[in-house]
Amino acid sequence: MMTIHLRYFALMRELLGRDAERVELPTGSTAADAFARVAAKQPRLAGLERSIMLMVNQEYVRPNHELRDGDELAFIPPVSGGAAGLFRVTDEPLDPREVEAAVAGTDAGAIVTFSGTVRDNAQGKTVTRLDYEAYVPAAEKKLAQIGDEIGKRWPGARTAIVHRTGSLEPGIASVVIATSSAHRGDAFAACAYAIERIKQIVPIWKKEHYADGAVWVGSEADYQRETGRVPQHS
After folding, report:
1. What are the residue ranges of helices labelled H in the chain?
2. Full-prediction pTM beyond 0.85?
3. pLDDT one-digit tens code per residue, 195-230
4. Which sign, positive or negative, has the C-alpha torsion 52, 92, 167, 169?
5. Residue 130: what are its φ and ψ, rounded to 5°?
6. 58: pLDDT strictly greater than 90
């Protein structure tokens, strides 16, 4: 057996009547197993399973993450404004099905999923890879803000966004967005809105690498406009 420290926030804290507790779980138990144990005591939590985010020792993990003795497991409920609650920046491969599941529900008549992938060409050159860099805490906060905005523009719509960081080769997904709504028109519109807002407000940057150098996308144009010179490729 092992001892796990559980933390609850917002709706979960109110439903359970406490903000933390210690539980004994069999060795090898996962984060999902821990949630199932908690939900068994409060049936109203069962409907939140797909929208709750899981953090172990202050790092986001997937439901199948295996817990260790002494771990702190925090359950992060959905944010306000109709957002689904899955807004994450990660260096791990993206799973579109996980993102879709975060917005699924019996009230949703449509789920629209967008996967942005690294292409092998840009500006007439062959792209060998993209490097993504993010100010992670701020980026996740802004992704959640986008979900908030969508919930206000299209009441009832839910949003989930996961963005990748690190060095990615052509064909690899760098971002997955899922939106759901009662009607397909709203779901499509919300997804398109999310794509554009990410470019506008989320502090994530990308560097394009070619055979003859590399540039930070967007920064090159700004540099040339301000200085009248083309920056040297690094």
Report:
1. 10-16, 31-41, 96-101, 136-153, 184-201, 219-227
2. no
3. 999 999 898 989 999 988 888 876 444 334 334 444
4. negative
5. -120, 140
6. no
